[in-house]
Each structure stands twice: as C-alpha cells, then as structure tokens.
Amino acid sequence: VQLQASGGGSVQAGGSLTLSCAASGNFLSINDMGWYRQAPGKERELVTGITSGGITHYADSVKGRFTISRDNAKNTVYLQMNSLKAEDTAVYYCNAEASHANYYGIPEEVDYWGQGTLVTVSS
Fold first, then answer.
1. CB under 8 Å to 23, separation ≥6 — which residues?
2. Residue 84 phi, psi (nearest 5)
3. CA-to-CA distance for 97 and 36, rounded, in angstroms?
C-alpha cells in the first residue's frame, strides 16, 4: 500500500491549508485513517483520526480549527486546517490501516505511513 500525501506549504498565521492523502495498492479495505505531525526537536504526535464509518477524534490543540474527512470511494483522507498558528509548523504524516488477506485467507491489519508533507506557519 502506498500513501501519497500532498498539500503542504507555507502560510501566514491565521491562514488555511488543506492536506490530502490517497491510498493505493493491493488491500481488502482501508480502515482507520489519520494525520500525525512532528515538529523540529519533538516527537511525532497524533493530530486527528477518522474511522471508515466517519467517527473522528482530534488532539485538544487542534479542536475547532482542523477538520478531517475522507472519501472512501477514493481511499483518500483530507485535513482542512484553519486558523493556523506558528506552533502548527511541522511535517505532517498520513497514516492508514489496511486489511490484507493472509496466507490462510484471514484478514490482517497493517499500518502504513505517507512520506510526510511540510507545513510552515509564519507569525
């Protein structure tokens, strides 16, 4: 499974950006999808996630500003980021859990990561 992320860039504080991440390859289904970020000198952290049924959760730091959505037909997840702050500056990684049939035909879940896209917010 390949995850292709796009949409990063530079923006001034208060601005908006939209990230997208498309999954492709061989799998039975894409289950949970999400976005993580890693700022310079910090550990990677969960930003937001969405189930295949559309249930979402957000880190407290982005609630009310970021919105995650997905298009199951396109196996694509989006992240709409509004009211961006300097502290949102980070490399953003998409994550997806895909189901594959193992040797016995039983579905197994595997985690995949996108290549990361840089978001820079200047104050």
1. 1, 2, 3, 30, 33, 75, 76, 96, 98, 112
2. -65, 145
3. 14
